[in-house]
Amino acid sequence: MLHPVGPLPASVYWRRRLLVLLLLVAVLGGGSWLGVALLGGGPEGSASAAGTSEAASTAPAAAEPPALDRVLPSLASVQTPTPPPTPTPAPPPAPAAPVQEAGAPCGDDVVALEVRTPGTVASGSSPTLELVVTNTAAVPCTRVLDKQLQEMVLLDAAGTRLWGSNDCRPETSSDTRTLQPGEQVVFPLVWTGLTSEPTCTAERVPVAPGQYVLRARLDTETSPDAVLTIT
Questions:
Q1: What is the mean pLDDT of the chain?
Q2: Which of 29, 65, 141, 151 is buried most deeply by CB count within 10 Å?
Q3: In terms of pTM, does the model score above 0.85?
């Protein structure tokens, strides 16, 4: 080994051995450096690896949306449905016109009652009052108009009854009539201007000045109130 033998000079063999030795050292050195680099043994490699690892561990946390945002959508992206318009309720149907059979007794719904007054009278005077009965049906009908079925009463503002037409002078009659469509029957009544009560036993005195109402009745049907002013 130390004294090479061959046809060439000894220096040639020594140079060959030195070249092989250098190649061997270079291969071993390069392999060691590559191993150290792969294992992160150097300071710069450690810092780089740590930085890379830290960035890798923090990057997903920064890029990942909050848990609430993943579960609930943003309010700005939610489309609120427009409620349908509230339908306008239909008006109630008009009341049906009363049906009256021709020639039959007039029903209360086709007979209109009205009280007519002078409007203003003097205290103690004897004004004439009128009960008006009208057939509002489109056909003729019959109605019992007996005096004992008719009555007028005078009421004050508090609703207290001060006078009644049947209290002291009740009348009776037998009066059944056939009323044509739109026909009116007028029953006049003279009032003495004095108070009364149903037994006609209390003292009768002139009704004091003021504003009162008169209300009429025909059997069970009543009229609207009519104003009477006494001065």
A1: 81
A2: 141
A3: no
